[in-house]
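Please check this today:
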Amino acid sequence: MWLGLMAFFVVILAIYIARAEGLEHDVSQANRDLLQAQMQLAEYTREEVPRPVEIGLRNADIQQLQRLGMTNPEQRLTDDLVQNPQVIPEVLRDGDQAEFREDGIYVLNARWVLAHFESGDQFGQLLLEYEVVHGNVMWEVVDGYVAD
């Protein structure tokens, strides 16, 4: 009986050793596959991969502008520009009344806005920097042009 019990334990031990060797082989094969995949990825990404540019206000920016007194910041910035065409520099107006196009105002991020405007038969764009103070928007023209 003791001999049978010992034989049983030897068989169980042999099975566990065989399984351990098989698992060790599987782990080493997985490591080789991983290394090969990493080398392929390095080869594919050797050239710089362009990342898409995020345009618009992030959630953190919206929350910050709301704390500064703006409800619905993107719409509020657009409305403020449409109501203040005097932001357009006189040199770009060519003497005509200039107006911002509401469908051409793009809030780029928490600092800049790109805005299309029309002045008579001319049109152009402005890159504007803005700051919000107590719910009021302060605009500064960074750059602009009139299309030919």
Observations:
- The first helix runs from residue 2 to 44.
- The helical segments are 2-44, 59-67, 73-83, 90-93.
- The mean pLDDT is 86.
- The first strand starts at residue 98 and ends at 107.
